[in-house]
Amino acid sequence: MSTLAAVAGRFEGKQALVLGVANKRSIAWAIAKRLADEGAQVAFTFQGERIEKSVRELAGSVDSPLVTECDVRSDDDIARVFAETGGAFGGGLDILVHSVAFAAAEDLEGRFTDTPRDRFWLAVDVSAYSLVAAARAAEPLMEARGAGSIVTMTYLGGERAVPHYNVMGVAKATLDASVRYLAWDLGQKNVRVNAISAGPVRTLAARSIAGFPTMEAIVEERAPLHRHIDADDAAAAAAYLLSEDARNVTGTTLYVDSGYHAMGM
């Protein structure tokens, strides 16, 4: 594990909403824990009863004021969640962490060419449009605070073809473009929007990707630093982007992958 020291009090008085925690190995949880350790109040959403208990236990460990279910495919659900968030946080919001993605397991095994239309749009809806919908709902809460910062999680498969990443790569490409356009729109309200492109991390989502151990082995062999990252590395990068240290950083992707993205082969 990384030994990346938290900066005490960096997020004192800040209020954050984190979408996408599944369990203690989630990158979203590592970010949430980092924010809480540095002074933020953190609200959480969960997707479905299966992970509710796990998320509530984690949220309880950081004295979260709000844990609520959210189906990001539902505009009504998103509106409710942000209304609840505004209620819990006195009508404002400083930080939004978006760590939500989904593609059917069978579409991460065979050929991208064979992706059916309905599951193509499902992957794009959950993995990319959800950021747009969440940012739109967060905008008035952040405007009430006078500023805000949004971070989402992406991956190199949105820029380059990664075998077996398939439709998720197309969804991440959509997410990457959405970050840039949201940064332009929301910059007028002093709201920043950025992405973190993390190397392979052993999360619940990663286990559904065929050939994940091969991806790990290739990164270790070819990345300049010849080592893997972990969720804490991504959390440290997120904490920077979400903090005042990055007050003039928006519309960008920060790579946390031991330099793998810089290599041609």
Structure, explained:
This protein has 265 residues and is of the alpha/beta class. Helices cover 42% and strands 14% of the residues. It contains 7 helices and 7 strands, in the order βαβαβαβαβαβααβ. The protein starts with 14 loop residues before the first strand and ends in a 9-residue tail after the last strand.
Q: What is the percent of helical residues?
A: 40-55%
Radius of gyration equals 17 Å
Task: State the major sheet.
Answer: 7 strands, parallel
Q: Decide which structural class fits the backbone.
A: alpha/beta
* DSSP summary: helix tally: 7
Estimate the mean pLDDT confidence.
94
Oligomer: single chain
User: How far from one another are the termini?
Assistant: 27 Å
Low-confidence region ranges: none
Topology pattern, helix = H, strand = E: EHEHEHEHEHEHHE
Query: Given the C-alpha coordinates, what overall shape results?
Result: globular
What is the topology, as strand order, of the major beta sheet? 3-2-1-4-5-6-7
Strand content is 5-15%
Number of strands: 7
